[in-house]
Amino acid sequence: MDMSFSPQDLAFRDEVRTFIAENYPKDLKSRRTRGEMTKEEILTWHRILYKKGWVVPHWPVEYGGTGWTTTQRYIWNEENARAETQALLPFGLAMVGPVIYTFGNEEQKKRFLPGILSADVWWCQGYSEPGAGSDLAGLKTRAVREGDHYVVNGHKIWTTLAQYADWMFCLVRTDANAKAQEGISFLLIDMKTPGITVRPIITMDGAHEVNEVFLEDVKVPAENLIGEENKGWTYAKFLLGNERSGIAGVSRSKKAIERLKSIATAELVDGSPLLKTDEFSRKVAELEIDLTALEVTELRTLAAESKGAGPGPEASILKIKGTEIQQRITELTLEAVGNYGHVNVPTGDLTGNEFVAGPDYSNGSAQNYFNMRKTSIYGGSNEIQHNIIAKMVLGL
Amino acid sequence: MDFSFTEEQTLLRNTVQSLLGDKYDFDTRRKIVKSAEGWSQPMWQQFAELGLLAAPFSEELGGLGGGSIETMILMEEFGRHLVVEPFVETVVLAGGFLREGGSPAQQEAHIPGIIGGETVWAFAYAEPQGRYNLADLATTAKKDGEGYTINGYKAVVLGAPWAQKLIVTARTSGGQRDRDGVSIFIVDKNAPGVSTRDYPTVDGRRASEITFENIKVGADALIGAEGKGLPLVEKITDQAIAALSAEAVGCMGELNKATVEYCKTRKQFGVPIGKFQVLQHRMVDMFMAYEQSVSMTYMVNLKLDENEAERTKAAAGAKVQIGKAGRFVGQQAVQLHGGMGMTDELNVGHYFKRLTMIDTQFGNVDHQLKRYSTAA
């Protein structure tokens, strides 16, 4: 057992830290804190990393991975969080990419992986439906084979950033008579295909992040089927396992706690820093301890993974604790800013002259808190994660 | 021991229920919030016509002779409908200062305008450095002949964009956080030297940042005795806390109703999700949090006229209860509604946002816990 970094690891850390310092656009952070970013702005860091060849450290080298060790990947995430770089969109890199190189055929790998790496193709996730949330396998979107294509009809919901998407990876029902999990297939659908309508959903923080996607007689070439027909549930679960482990967000949470502490130092109670009060400092300490535990739990999971064990049901621990911590950070941040928590930062079409009251660090803290309530709902609600652990780990 | 309402109180509740039921549904409220003004003056006029703005004033002052229980009833219904109009700011706070601290001349000059719905007020007390400490004031009022000159900056003055008049706390003597030396003034919002920057709040209301630059007010603008204002500020903000508690109860009641209904109808895995024990217990906890909040709300509204220590404990205790319960019920209502709970379209998120902001008004859970534990 050893939790310290080797000299090689430290050298690696210096290398990536220097790279980030020299290549991360300085103005990106300030643009991010005010309003929504354009499609191209969201991809800025992705494109820089693609050029460097570092966009998918976790992929096998033959498909574009960096061949880094688990520790190096951990350091890489740490350094990105430390510099508060843009988070990369997970839909291609963390979700459909690994499904394609694991279960797709050679033709599909050649066709789709380059666009994922370069970010020339924007992917979205067609999983949830109005009637299929926690019970994902209850999905009803139908795909009927007609000659060399499928005809897809259905209604997807909570599709994140579908307004920008070029392609969607979609769970569809191909056998209506099979048991729920057994009649599902994994289809790749070009969003420009006639019959697809994207309708925005505005969330309570005022943001347009998610959408409904309506599919009406959408013709999808049969060659866009991943793996075998009716085996899609296997690929879907594989993807969800990856999604859950990425969801822990330990490094980002560390940075967010640092930020919380600096806010609580600037905010005053009777003339002295809020962070010096017993109540608040204890709450922050508790949060840090929770995060430390999660960090080591994640490292243990990563270590097991590097020895060949895939992300198993233990990933559900990372999802539950990770999202609880993220939510708690935003809750305490809102608490820290006091009265200025009331201020709404305008979203949508802005003139650029909107007045936002309070110190910069307080801006958007309530909206951020509201927005983060989604994390215990998406990616399989935290209640579902409890079920997974109960069943798969405890054998209940 | 009797927790029942009088006939008049029940009638008042029926009146406000039928008004809001007819004219303040969620879509109407959404339109009001999105309008340029951000509130409905016609609705405010209806409040006046139905006597809602007169309810807590004595008959001598032109009111209907009610008190905190009448305010509680109104606020609970306002909470149910997420009413944004400035009842707390105008009737509870400004009305309270005038009723309990105003001279007969001040009462005569200002209370009819409140009751008639002609004048809207806001309470400018919070300052960026002061957090929830009502005495932490950098705003000063210097004696200037017969009157005073006010200079300072007030943060997040709720309802100020709609107001013509302000109640302003300022320091007339003493150090920045001394209990002595706090004075309360009536200031015209359009007086020369008052500048405001207005903005929306996350719970669908409006607020202003207000700068006071050499504002001249006469001696008749002072409420109560110079430098002795803090006990009155505490008393009136406790009344506001009692009102906000009732509003929170209204919000929580609606959230619980909506959540139970949703869990009975939303099917996953072939059954209504309300059949899952883990969710049943969650909703039972939400229900208990609500009931405990109702209790604390009754308690504080019955104890507003007790001695200072009793009242402080009642108000701080109620605020802690609704702060904790509001957070739990709000978060869980969103969680149990799943993705739908996150949307702007459904009212659930809007109740959650309002409950979240109620916690920050006049001091959050931590602040009130400390206040409770140090009350004599």
Quick recap:
The complex is a heterodimer of chains A (396) and B (376). By secondary structure, chain A is α+β, with helices and mostly antiparallel strands.
How do the strands and helices of this protein lay out in sequence?
The complex is a heterodimer of chains A (396) and B (376).
Chain A: H1 7-23, H2 28-33, H3 39-42, H4 44-52, H5 70-82, H6 90-103, H7 106-118, E1 123-126, E2 142-146, E3 149-157, E4 167-173, E5 184-190, E6 196-202, E7 208-221, E8 225-226, H8 232-246, H9 250-266, E9 268-269, E10 272-273, H10 278-306, H11 315-337, H12 365-371, H13 382-393
Parallel strand pairs in A: 1-4
Antiparallel strand pairs in A: 2-3, 3-7, 4-5, 5-8, 6-7, 9-10
Helix pairs in contact in A: 1-5, 5-9, 6-7, 6-8, 8-11, 9-10, 9-11, 10-11, 11-12, 11-13
Chain B: H1 7-23, H2 26-34, H3 41-49, H4 68-81, H5 87-101, H6 104-115, E1 121-124, E2 140-144, E3 147-158, E4 165-171, E5 182-188, E6 194-200, E7 206-217, E8 222-223, H7 230-265, E9 267-268, E10 271-272, H8 277-302, H9 308-337, H10 339-342, H11 347-360, H12 365-374
Keywords (chain B): FAD, Flavoprotein, Oxidoreductase
InterPro entries (chain B): Acyl-CoA_Oxase/DH_mid-dom, Acyl-CoA_Oxase/DH_mid-dom_sf, AcylCo_DH-like_C, AcylCo_DH/oxidase_C, AcylCoA_DH/ox_N, AcylCoA_DH/ox_N_sf, AcylCoA_DH/oxidase_NM_dom_sf
Domain Acyl-CoA oxidase/dehydrogenase middle (chain B): 122-214
Overview of the structural elements:
The complex is a heterodimer of chains A (396) and B (376). Helices cover 45% and strands 15% of the residues of chain A. Chain A is built from 13 helices and ten strands. In chain A, strand 9 and strand 10 (272-273) form a beta hairpin. Chain A is globular. Chain A starts with 6 loop residues before the first helix and ends with a helix. Chain B has three domains: 7-119, Butyryl-Coa Dehydrogenase, subunit A, domain 1 (Orthogonal Bundle), CATH 1.10.540.10; 122-228, Butyryl-CoA Dehydrogenase, subunit A, domain 2 (Beta Barrel); 231-374, Butyryl-CoA Dehydrogenase, subunit A, domain 3. Chain B has helices spanning 7-23, 26-34, 41-49, 68-81, 87-101, 104-115, 230-265, 277-302, 308-337, 339-342, 347-360, 365-374, and strands spanning 121-124, 140-144, 147-158, 165-171, 182-188, 194-200, 206-217, 222-223, 267-268, 271-272. In chain B, helix 5 runs antiparallel to helix 6 (104-115). In chain B, 52% of the residues lie in helices and 16% in strands. Chain B contains twelve helices and ten strands. At the A-B interface, strand 9, helix 11, helix 12 and helix 13 of A face strand 3, strand 6, strand 9, helix 9 and helix 10 of B. Chain B: InterPro entries: Acyl-CoA_Oxase/DH_mid-dom, Acyl-CoA_Oxase/DH_mid-dom_sf, AcylCo_DH-like_C, AcylCo_DH/oxidase_C, AcylCoA_DH/ox_N, AcylCoA_DH/ox_N_sf, AcylCoA_DH/oxidase_NM_dom_sf. Chain B: One of its GO terms (molecular function) is acyl-CoA dehydrogenase activity.
